[in-house]
Sequence to fold (382 residues):
Amino acid sequence: MEMHQDIREAVARLCADFPGPYWRRLDAERAYPTEFVRALTEQGYLSALIPEDYGGTGLGLSAAVAILEEIHRAGCNASACHAQMYTMGTLLRHGSEAQKRRWLPGIASGALRLQAFGVTEPTSGTNTAAIRTFARREGDRYIVSGQKIWTSRAEHSDLMILLARTTPAAEVAKKTDGLSVFLIDMRAAKGKGLRISPIRTMMNHSTCEVFFDEVEVPAENLIGEEGKGFRYILSGMNAERILIAAECIGDAKWLIDRAARYAGEREVFGRPIGMNQGIAFPIAAAYARMRAAELMVHEAVRRYEAGGNPGAEANMAKMLAAEASWEAAEAAMQTFGGFAFAEEYDIERKFRETRLYQVAPISTNLILSYLAEHVLGMPRSY
Ligand SMILES: Cc1cc2nc3c(=O)[nH]c(=O)nc-3n(C[C@H](O)[C@H](O)[C@H](O)COP(=O)(O)OP(=O)(O)OC[C@H]3O[C@@H](n4cnc5c(N)ncnc54)[C@H](O)[C@@H]3O)c2cc1C
Fold:
């Protein structure tokens, strides 16, 4: 029996109302899954990580993992709203009591959407310490100028967690110092220096460029201490990686189910194609790798819920699960043959969607660098 069986069954029932044709229509129109996100919000699933004291369901990480895995296992896609679950973690862990009381209840109910996370910039890429967006203090406010890229869901978010430089890189001892985190009220900033420009990508992902031109931010929206933002952002990344890994496990299960079923049904040369080991073995191998990755996800969750901050396991879970879902997608493409390319089977959609997770929220190379340096003690490569 899997953990949180009751939640899994309830999420699966909700997802049954959002079958393949729903996602295909959105894909064609590049539209946001408003109804799907509303249904998840109304059931309280997106507030799983917000403590009950602040209006959330306080279910915890293992429940959040079950929710996101089941969404993907049903062929749906949580990328439109998964960040509503975890972006608030920075506020929850490092915000003042007044900030938490002000913002978290609205985020928990869904009245306020905090699902935009502005870290990556076009010129800095993976090198977060090299970001250029700058927030300068003027009395009781900061003035922000710069640009973010790949700020997903910015058009569907009221608030954004923004990482900006507050001390020039040349004036800090460590390049990760002098960065600060702000809660940006995008409703107030739009048209007053904040501009959002969607990027068309190979899947329907609502990701954007965001431009800041002298945007005023009240100083009370600074989270934690000025200059310490880099570590605040890092502290939330393990939860995010574990949750994305769970989505990949869900994708892999969906793809493997579909491929195995099709291999048993499709007859060519008078026999099911699954009788050919060239078809059956890649699906079986993908299953074995998915199960191994799933164990790493469980281990990361176990350590996290025991109060740890399991960087190695969270990173390995994300890497292994993203590779497993991609292997499952490959096997499904080959099994469906020509029909894999027809939109109505949803295989090509999942193939496109699940490929992202080897690149974002962090690419495989950076995970390997982390393991090489922090777990195996090898020299830092960058
Ligand atoms: C659809 C989508 C949604 C995203 N959503 C968000 C979001 O909401 N918020 C946000 O802030 N960001 C977001 N991102 C950004 C994402 O986190 C980055 O794309 C990712 O971290 C890689 O950065 P980059 O694209 O600049 O690649 P680059 O840094 O340019 O790297 C390119 C390649 O070089 C490799 N590389 C770079 N440096 C090294 C090194 N030292 N050693 C080995 N290999 C290296 C990388 O691993 C990568 O494979 C999103 C990206 C995408 C595509």
